[in-house]
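Quick log. Single chain, no ligands specified.
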Amino acid sequence: MSGIGDMLQATRFFVGFLPSFTNVGYLARRSLWQRETWDFSSQHWLVSGASSGIGREIARQAAAAGASVLAVARSADKLAQLAEEAENLAGSIHPIPMDLSLVASTEELISRVLVQHPALNVLVNNVGVLLNTPATTAEGLDTGFATNLLNPWLLTTEACQRGLLSDDASVIHMSSGGMYNVPLSVPALESHENYQGAMAYAYHKRAQVELNAHLRRTEAGRRQYYVMHPGWVDTPGVETSLPDFHRVLKPLLRNAAAGADTALWLASHRPNQRAPEGIWFDRALRSSHALPGSRKGDDLEALLAYLETRGNFPGANEAAFA
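-> predicted structure:
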C-alpha cells in the first residue's frame, strides 16, 4: 500500500471506529447488559502480561471471583505487588516472573511451571508489546513478533499437546482493533524495513485472528478458542507506545476494567461460536474484516510454516491441530 493509501486507510479507521472503540461505545453497550457476578471458584487460570493494564485487571477480577491465577509477566516487583493486593480475595494469584519474548522462557513456563499445577481451565494470552523502533531478542527473533504472536502460539499449542489444558478449557487471545487495517502478511511479521510500530503490531494481531480461526476449525472436543479486542484502553503500554494518541484521546479511552470485561464474560459464559471466523468485542461476535483489502493476504499454510521455522519446540505446530 502506498504512503497516501496508508494515510487514507488510517484516517478511515480512526474516524470510523472512534465512537465504538472508546468509552462512548462501551458505556452505550453496557447499558443493555444484565448485571452479573463472576464465579470462577476452583478454576485454574494463566494470564500473561499480568503486571499492568488489561492483563492485571483480568487476573485480579478472576482471583476475586475465586480462581487460582498464574500471573505471568517480566516485572517481578509488579507481580509481587499484585499478589499482595490479592491476599484477601476469594481466590489467589501466583506470580511467575518470566520474559515471554523468549522461546526458551515459554518452554520453561510449560516444562517447569505448568506441569506442577493442575490443568488450566482458562488461558488468557494477553501479553503484547508495541515498539516504536524495531528490536531483536537474544534468540534472533523480532521482539514484537516473538511476544505478540509466536510465543502465545507455542504456549497454546504445546500446553494442549502436553495435556496442560483441561478438556473443556477456554483459551482467550487478546488481539487489537488495529488488525482491521491490514491483511495477513507473513513477510511483514518481522520486517524492519520502513518500520512503523503500530503497523507491525497490527500485522501480528491479524495473524493472531487467523490462527484462532484455525484452532476453531481443527481442534476437536469441548475446548473453546476465542479472539477478542478490548477497544481503546488507557494503559501504561498505550501511554508509552502511542503518546500522541494517548494524549489526544485520554478523556475518551476506556479504563482497564472495561478492557477486561469481554475476556471475563467469555470465560464465564463460554459461548458456542459456530463459525470459526470472527472477533469478540463488547460481548458480541463481530466480523474480523471491516476495511478494504484485509482479505487479500497470504494463506494460513504459509503462516503455519513460518511459525514452525521460527519456533524451536520439539513437535511445535504438529498434527494435533490438523
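Residues 3-11+42-314 form a domain with the Rossmann fold fold (CATH 3.40.50.720).
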